[in-house]
Amino acid sequence: MRPTPQLLLPTSQREPLFTTHGIVAANFVLDISKIWDTHTGEMLYSLRHNHIVRAVAYPPDNSDLIATGGMEKKLRVFDLAELSAAYPGSPATIPADAGFEIGEGIHTSSIKFICWTNDPNTIITAADKTIRWLDLPTRGCIRTEVLDGEIGSCEMVSLAPEYSASSDIGGGKSVLAVAAGKTAYFWGGDRAMDRLKSITLPYTIASVGIDLKGRKIVVGEEPGTWAKVIHYDEEVELDVHKGHHGPIWSIAFSPDGKLYATGSEDGTIKLWKNCEGFYGLWQGVAERTTE
Predict the structure, then answer these.
(1) CATH at 213
(2) pLDDT tens, position by position, 179-193
(3) Does residue 289 fall inside a structural domain?
(4) Which of 63, 99, 132, 258 is most exposed, with the fewest beta carbons within 10 Å of its own?
(5) Which residues contact 183 (CB under 8 A, 6 or more apart)?
(6) What Pfam families does the record point to (predicted)?
(7) What are the helix (H) ranges across the chain?
(8) Parent domain of 116
(9) Is the dihedral of CA 99, 100, 103, 106 positive or negative?
């Protein structure tokens, strides 16, 4: 029996979150995270919080666990398999205190991003200038790093298994990519605790994405509207993408690494080809973008 693809809607999240079996997390309003069945459009759960939700995450094993965080300054994990029995209804309304808090009292500012690592027992949060690694079994914080500036983006990046290789950045595993101040940071390993590299630029960046196979990064300037492509190893600028009319808050690569998207405050998402020859709508002559 295949898992039920679901749609999770938190508050104030800038970009959708996709998992490998059709689960999507996207924007909503106020203090409610809503979970939908993407096959039927039925709303399954409504997770009530006490303040605005800014981030959600699913574990890599696609279980029924969902992590949420935001302006409550609390990282909560909900076990939907257990809670669905305790809170019947369609949709089931689940209160905030039904989730268990991880790292109680350690977050002193709003949680902007949550990343679940390859190790399902390790969750990462980004708040203000601080990255925290939290352990699910003990519910404690196991590591903290204060970065050089306000965190603009924090994402786990990976290729689909059939496209990944040991020669990729991160050795074929997921890489944590973080933009903070003027620096792009990268961590690898099962728990994303191994610092791979940091690249400091002459300008502040709002976001960063990484091409694991092509060994490039893409950053969004702040303030600014351009996306800049930079060589990961040589740290030299390779290209500049223009076309947005607002800051670029999110950059994401496709599972095959041959396409990436930039999401801007101007309300548009632009797709950029990251390979030679034909790909999708592109004809293999000049590089183009599409919205």
Answers:
(1) 2.130.10.10
(2) 999 999 999 999 999
(3) no
(4) 63
(5) 147, 148, 149, 198, 199, 200, 201, 205
(6) WD40 (PF00400)
(7) 80-86
(8) 13-146
(9) positive
